[in-house]
Amino acid sequence: MDLRLAVVLLLLCAIFSISEGGIPQCCVTTKVTHKKILRMAKKLVYQHPDGFCDIEAFIIYTHNKRYCIPPSMKKHFPSRLVKNGKF
Prior knowledge:
Layout: H1 2-18, H2 35-40, E1 43-47, E2 57-61, E3 66-69
Antiparallel strand pairs: 1-2, 2-3
């Protein structure tokens, strides 16, 4: 019986790790960031307040760091990151 349980748990772990998205990387707080950081941004992602994540935020990715930005800073985003008025 213990072997069956171990196999089932192993399969569940494998399925969960393979599943698309996996564990979401949610922002739990936001912080107003200097405009210099926004200019260094490589990628911009919107975090919806429904679903897995509890707060509305924009996630800015730079070379080696991730910043959680409040939606009020949207007007300061570089135009190269904002595509077709999506944000």
